[in-house]
Amino acid sequence: MAITGIEIFKLLPKTNCGECGVPTCLAFAMSLAAGKAELAKCPYLSEEARNKLEEASTPPIRMVTIGKGENAKKIGGETVMFRHEKRFENAPAIALLISDDMTETAIDGRIERFSNLVYERVGQTLRGEIIALKCQSGDASKYKALINKVMQKCKASIMLISENPDMLAAGLSVCSDMRPLIHAVTKENCEKIIALAKECSCPVAVKGESIDDIIELTTRLEQSGVKDIVIDTGASSIQKVLQDQVAIRRAALNQKMRSLGYPTIVLVNEMTDDPLKEAMIAATFVAKYAGIIVLSDFSGETLFPLLVLRMNLFSDPQRPLATDEDIYEIGCPDESSPVLVTCNFSLTYFIVSGEIESSRVSGYLLIKDTEGLSVMTAWAAGKFGADTIASFVKKCGIADKVKHRKLIIPGYIAIESGALEDELPDWEIVVGPREGAHIPAYLKTWKA
């Protein structure tokens, strides 16, 4: 059974120092018991107590890392059923399937799409992370050739798919250094693949016909010393897969079942032949609760919405995406270029900077730190008023970059213009557009 909050409290230093982020050791103990805090946050814990409390500090769903280095992808590590309870920790990996019985043209096309379909949005890079390589031919040399080709042409983590231990051994002989995910352990091949996983120190996926099968397999793996496990329930209908995903998550989080406390994989590519339907099914499991989602192919019109959905769900609801406070040069501004100011909410920054670029009028964009809040929210919270804006303008150094003294503020805070003129007597405060879409037309009439 999991250790209780009171039992954890007995092992804590009881200093109530608050350095862990909560005011008392009792509150920290309760957070640890609920899997909502990290043991490392307590700086005064003895080594003996730390060893005893490792189980309590481990997330209910184990975090598993696939791959190494810059291509490593972390999945799992989750502590809540719903995002509003705290946050989701690690976004699911999006995987592209390539089989060794495909034509060279089809393989090259998938590799090209995997490499090229990369997007920048609000300062984040959005892309697929894993290539799932399936041994369909039963030919070890053909499978190894495919793996070599992908390794040479792609920056990605790798998943090896086969239930034949000999084919998996052949694949691992090529890519074991990349720490690929081995898919899949079944009742029939369990012992052989456990040996491979231990030899190569690779994570493994277990596959069964029911959750009872999964429990049996994960228990055998745990007893063998294999801890990095991913669960594939083997279901192929959206209804059954969804039921399994929710049941596994509840069992791990609410019932503390360690044998189900692992991230899951959903092979959406096996659930439909319709690319649009595949994308819709994948979207379901971005939210509920896949750790890896395997697609049959990538295309911009289906991949991009999935990546944006994933980004939105796995951002921290208590910590908005924010841009660094600074002066941003848009285009090639000079001493006569316009100066605009706005908040550091990432979406606001990218909208405003994009509209300045589209106007073809170079300018300076002053980004004020508002703790990631939007213009009106920051203004209402007292983080984007005359005093804070004026202080930033004075210290940021923009006065050394331009001859004029005109500052364009967002139309939504026009009410602050008078107070800003008092705070910045050397500057003329100009009220700009309320909407970003109106910025290009506005800047085309700009005169220093």
Characterization of this structure:
- The protein is α/β, with parallel strands linked by helices.
- The protein has three domains: 5-57, 3-methyladenine DNA Glycosylase II, Chain A, domain 3 (Orthogonal Bundle); 64-313, TIM Barrel, CATH 3.20.20.20; 326-443, Rossmann fold, CATH 3.40.50.
- Helix content is 39%, strand content 16%.
- It is built from 16 helices and 17 strands.
- The protein has helices at residues 5-11, 25-33, 47-57, 104-116, 140-153, 165-175, 190-200, 211-224, 238-253, 275-287, 300-313, 346-359, 375-380, 386-396, 417-423, 439-443, and strands spanning 64-66, 73-75, 93-99, 119-121, 124-126, 130-134, 157-161, 181-185, 204-207, 229-232, 265-267, 292-295, 326-330, 339-343, 363-368, 406-409, 428-431.
- An eight-stranded parallel beta sheet has the order 10-9-8-7-6-3-12-11, with helices on one face.
- Strand 9 (204-207), helix 8 and strand 10 (229-232) form a beta-alpha-beta unit.
- It is globular, with a radius of gyration of 27 Å.
- The relative contact order is 0.09.
- The model has no long low-confidence stretch (mean pLDDT 92).
